[in-house]
Amino acid sequence: MAETTVKEFAESVNRPVDRLLEQMSEAGLPHKRQDEAVSEKDKQTLLAFLKKSHGGDTAEPGKITLKRRTTSKLKTGAGKKTVNIEVRKKRTYVKRNEAELEAEAKAKADAEAKAKAEAEAKAKAEADARRKADEAAKRKQADAARAKSTGERQSKPAEAAPVEQKTEKPVREKKFRDQDAAPSKPAGKGKRSGNKPSFASEDGRRGGGKKDSRGARKGQKGARGNDRRNEPKREHGFEKPTAPIVREVSIPEAITVSELAEKMAVKAAEVIKVMFNMGAMATINQVIDQDTAQIVVEEMGHKFKLINDNALEDDFLDAISYEGKEVTRAPVVTVMGHVDHGKTSLLDYIRRAKVADGESGGITQHIGAYHVETGHGMVTFLDTPGHAAFTAMRARGAKATDVVILVVAADDGVMPQTEEAVQHAKAAGVPIVVAVNKIDKEAADPDRVKTELAAREVIPEEWGGDVPFVHVSAKAGTGVDELLDAVLLQAEILELTAVPEAPAKGVVVEARLDKGRGPVSTVMVQNGTLRKGDMVLAGVHYGRVRALIDENGHQTEEAGPSIPVEILGLDGTPDAGDEFTVVQDERKAREVALFRQGKFRDVKLARQQAAKLENMFENMGKGEVANLNVVLKTDVRGSLEAISAALQDLSTDEVKVNIISSGVGGIAETDANLALASSAVLVGFNVRADASARSIVEREEIDLRYYSVIYELIDHVKQAMTGMLAPEYKEEIVGIAEVRDVFRSPKLGAIAGCMVVEGTVYRNKKIRVLRDNVVIYEGELESLRRFKDDVNEVRNGVECGIGVKNYNDVKEGDKIEVFDKVKVERTL
Questions:
Q1: How is residue 827 annotated by DSSP?
Q2: Domain carrying residue 176
Q3: CA neighbours within 13 Å on the CB side: how many for 227?
Q4: 427: closest CA among 464, 387, 461, 455?
């Protein structure tokens, strides 16, 4: 086995290098540096030392007990009631001593020797039986030939027949004695005088019986019986098994009870009986999951083999070869930044200055991507509307961007969307090149930009970091060449390569349905070459490429790596971020597309469940979630810092709390997109989500949680991390009223004239007053009126007057949120 270094050993055991070197020194090992090699003997020495230091015995354990607990759901009756069933399984393995192992080996050797001797004896007996059978057959043929020749020479066969019988009789009797069989009955009842009963011959004519039809039949029967006695003794091929047959059962991700029984070659009732004894009720057509089927197969004494349902897709795509000569490809760049910081102006200048002269029509904007030629190479730009589309593509697992250009105005500095762009780029693991724009303005302060970005962990290269800062002016064109050079330098560090001769594959940038041309998809080729006529599989859609259109609106025959093109010919519009692949077999492409359509809903539900706070501890046990990702928004900066610090302190060796994004203000659409892309829990402290964010949360079922008490937030996360999340009271918003006008009354105070815009407003439920989606007051209603009448509830679309108890600072434009606390039982 190859030796590893101290650093690699420390990473594999998840220990700091300094601490590992200290322990190795205590164990008497000579290692002092992290690049020294560690052998297997050194590892065993360190392990023995650690066991001894912890009070353990260095001897190997003699007994191992494995415990397993699984939980499943069972619907009873008509499916109205769900019962949780827990199956606990415990197995103990005891290590035997050397004497027992030697005795077992000796017994096994004796049994093998005995079986071998029996097999040899059996083979010898079968050989003797075959030899005797061959000799008997030869004698029979000789007797038949002799009888035939004698009958031809004799002129009186009737007188010679008894003599022939007498000469044959001793021989035939000897033959029967050899075969250990009794002679058959005579052919007839009567006897000839002076003759003894004769045996039936092959053709039944020598039975000596009556010459009627019945006698003939008897003679024939005797002949057949004689033939059976003359044949060698046969043995049937079936042998009763002495040990149970162990089969290897292939288990897919879902299987019915009847299919599982068929794979094990047992009756379905036996499988149902085993499951009943395990505590799980099942019917013959019930679908069970892979884990349950695995336990059933083990319980019935068979071996299992787990099968991935994606085998069809994986085998089909893995068969495509992308081998060939690798060449350097151009980087794909996305420009991000705050509004009015010059993103569009910078892109316009690059297009005007770098696109080759003579191209008519300029750039077609709806294609969403274009490429430019520079003095050092080609650069491809994704013309996306900010980081929202960037994150939406990453939410589908696509990595279409190689480098991010972060545009920051030198006179404004870091703004909220700038900080969000940094968080999105870091979450995607994409290198950043900062373009400090508007450098020609009088109020420009580049050092301020560096300081503010350094506070957000974007460290300039001149300060010892790895992020290049380039001063540019999109209006005058200053520094644009240096910016492109910095991008190409980052591309050289990334070592972006592709194989032009291979089949094309890449990512879908966008897709739309054109009235005249049908489905039109903009794709970015990342590897290989896409040609007209290729069969393309993109997400859940497929089709043959009927036309390729470049960024200038001209048709082309092919597109190489890092080239964006529009393709026509797919049977639908794939989603942005879907990967496309060129395949050879149209029938297989159709099968994979249909399979993906069936799996789409399951994948979506699995992604939603993985991000649920309640399911975090369960997923930890499966090794699927190592981090708890959180997107945090609060009402004030002080709460943000306090909650962030408290959540970071909850991190343990098993799970770490990772705050993907944090900020002050209401929950926006970009926060919901980031939570979706990072499988994060969306947490709002005294803030609410706007309409677009709520739409994404409801559609994608993101785990969104509102809190107004810090300790509740911390306790829920802590309980989820320890797997002890108790039943909770979840807030449910039942109605929202918007303040249209405010009336002042000397007796009643401020009365808000409102319009109910969502749900229903109730008189007896608690309320919150929101201003710009930030909670400014929490309490209850003092009055709820329709005209002059007091009412208990007001429905959506109806005007009403609301008086808030002990609060008079209601202003026009505020929203009054009515909520109710609902008890939510935890389900496993």
A1: -
A2: 128-230
A3: 9
A4: 387
One-letter amino acid for residue 581 of the chain: T
Both structure tokens of 401: 């961007």
DSSP 213: H
Nearest Cα residue to 737 out of 791, 698, 680, 673: 791
Contacts of 612 (CB under 8 A, 6+ apart): 681, 703
CB 79 within 8 A of CB 72: no
Query: Is the domain of 394 the same as that of 488?
Result: yes
Which residues have CB under 8 Å from 547's CB, separation 6+?
532, 555, 567, 568, 569
Stretch (H or E) spanning 509? strand 505-514
In a domain, 100, yes or no: no
* pLDDT tier for residue 222 given thresholds of 50, 70 and 90: very low
The answer to whether 725 touches 826, Cβ cutoff 8 Å, is yes
Nearest CA among 573, 429, 450 for reference residue 494: 429
Q: Is 546 in the same domain as 451?
A: no
pLDDT at 277 over 90: no
C-alpha span between 503 and 321 (Å, rounded): 8
Tell me the three state secondary structure of residue 248.
strand
Whether 696 and 626 have beta carbons less than 8 Å apart is answered as no
User: Nearest CA to 222 among 190, 264, 196, 186?
Assistant: 186
Contact by Cβ (8 Å): 46, 24: yes
The pair of structure tokens assigned to 741 is 């006008």
Per the structure, the count of domains in the chain is 6
Residue 333 burial (10 A CB sphere; 0-12, 13-18, 19+): buried
Question: pLDDT-derived band of residue 182, with 50, 70 and 90 as boundaries?
Answer: very low
Query: Quick one: 779 and 806 in the same domain?
Result: yes
485 and 373 in one domain?
yes
Please report the pLDDT score of residue 18 as a whole number: 85
Separation between Cα atoms, residue 696 and residue 693, nearest integer Å = 5
Quickly list H helices, 564-653: 586-610, 616-621, 637-649
Same domain, 447 and 466: yes
In this structure, the number of other CB atoms found within 10 A of the CB of residue 827 comes to: 8
Would 710 be classed as within a structural domain? yes
Do residues 27 and 9 share a domain?
yes
Q: In this structure, what are the phi and psi dihedrals at residue 789, rounded to the nearest 5 degrees?
A: -100, 135
739: domain CATH number is 2.40.30.10
Task: Tell me the CA end-to-end span of the chain in Å, nearest whole number.
Answer: 43
Residue 484 covered by a domain: yes
pLDDT in tens, 120-176: 888 888 888 888 888 888 888 888 887 776 655 544 444 444 444 444 444 444 444
CB 697 within 8 A of CB 682: yes
What tokens does 727 get? 């039943």
Q: Name 395's Cβ contacts closer than 8 Å, sequence gap at least 6.
A: 577, 673, 676, 677
CA–CA dist 571, 213 (Å, integer)? 82
- Distance of CA 668 to CAs 392, 406, 674, Å? 14, 21, 10
Together in a domain, 439 and 407: yes
Q: Cα(774)–Cα(770) distance, rounded to whole angstroms? A: 5
Q: Determine the Cα–Cα distance for residues 781 and 793; give it in Å rounded to an integer.
A: 12
| pLDDT classification of 761: cutoffs 50, 70, 90 | very high
673, 395 in Cβ contact below 8 A? Answer: yes
Find the helix packing angle between 710-721 and 637-649, rounded to 10°: 20
Closest to 409 measured CA to CA, from 451, 456, 443, 459: 443
* Residues whose CB falls within 8 Å of the CB of residue 637, separated by 6 or more in sequence, listed in order: 664
Mean pLDDT (whole number) for 350-358: 53
d(Cα 793, Cα 763) in Å, to the nearest integer? 6
> Contact at 8 Å (CB) between 346 and 471?
no
Question: CB count, 10 Å around CB of 205?
Answer: 13
Same domain, 552 and 444: no
| Rg (alpha carbons) of the chain, rounded to whole number | 43
Of 316, 318, 310, 397, residue with least CA distance to 595: 310
